[in-house]
Amino acid sequence: MKRTTLWKRMAAAVLSSALLIGAAFTTQYRADAAEVSGKIVVAGSTALLPLTQQAAKEFKKHHPKVKIVVSGSSSIAGPQSVAKGVATIGACDWDATRAVGGFPAYKGLKAYKIAKIPFAVIVNKNNAVNNLSVQQIQDIYEGKITNWKQVGGKDEEIVVINRAKGSGTRVNFEDKIMDGHAIKTSGDNYKEVQKSGDMVNAVSSNPNAIGFVDLAYVKGGIKAVSINGVKATTANAASGKYVFYGYGYLLTKGEAKGADKAFINYILSQKFQHGSLKKLKFIPVK
Fold it and tell me: How much is the pLDDT for 1?
């Protein structure tokens, strides 16, 4: 009986300690959540917009005292907005602390790599073409190939859709696909759009259009063509088999502090990297 009583007392003590530890962790988490406050303003990349919007939604639940405003226009607007003090965090499809694609390096900013971005060359979902080589894509955007029948499609003129200068998706397209070949930016069948959403609308509404966007936007009236016979998937981009990808960055003026730091840390957390980020067709960097 004495031995039984002793074991019961020990079990009760262990349970009590576990409850106290659990309560301590719960209290600490709630205290940490309460301590984060302020305003976060994210501006820049529309390619990263699905990611930053989802992160803001989740972060707000954990930190209700933080006000978050997220918008997207173009990658170049990210570092520009932070440098001017209009935004606290800039989203960009390249490391804007370095000179890239004709854009200068933004001094005084700190870049945080948050995701690998798979991009896709897209056509209307009713287009019969499902695969293009890098050479064929280059020839289309240079104006050398002008009819879909030249690449196995219908006898219809190709309508080329490009992103406006300042787009990070365009910077990556010129780097990974065009590889020094100049895009023909004139003619009746050439059009430029401002945002990723505009690109989707332009291609989905025109059966003869071709464009490019990040994989997160591929749905509805558009489809991604394979490049060099390799499908546009996160798995192929992660392995390096698929050639059209880039990296997404968040930029702050100097080292991130306060709510900005907490928000970036949340995006880089295992929970977000291997949860919502992957569901949105981005590839974790952590």
Answer: 43
R_g (Cα) of the chain, nearest Å: 24
Check: CB of residue 7 under 8 Å from CB of residue 129. Answer: no
Helix (H, G, I), strand (E, B) or coil at 103: strand
Mean pLDDT by 10 residues, the chain (286 residues): 44 40 34 75 98 98 97 98 98 97 95 98 98 98 98 98 98 97 97 98 98 97 98 98 98 98 98 98 97
> 49-62 vs 258-267: helix axis angle to the nearest 10?
110
- State the virtual CA torsion across 116, 122, 124, 126 in degrees, nearest 10: -90
Contact (CB, 8 A) for 48 and 54: no
pLDDT of residue 35: 81
Q: Which fold has domain 36-117+247-279?
A: D-Maltodextrin-Binding Protein; domain 2 (3.40.190)
Break the chain into its structural domains and give their ranges.
36-117+247-279, 118-239
pTM of the model: 0.87
235-250 tens-digit pLDDT: 999 999 999 999 999 9
**CATH numeric code, 118-239:** 3.40.190.10
From 73, 71, 117, 75, select the one nearest 96 (Cα to Cα). Answer: 75
Measured distance CA(275)–CA(270) in Å, rounded? 8
- Which tokens sit at 115? 């995701």
Say if 36-117+247-279 and 118-239 have the same CATH topology: yes
Q: Which helix (H) or strand (E) holds 137?
A: helix 134-142
Strand spans (E) along the chain: 38-44, 66-70, 89-92, 109-124, 131-132, 159-163, 190-193, 209-214, 222-224, 226-227, 245-253
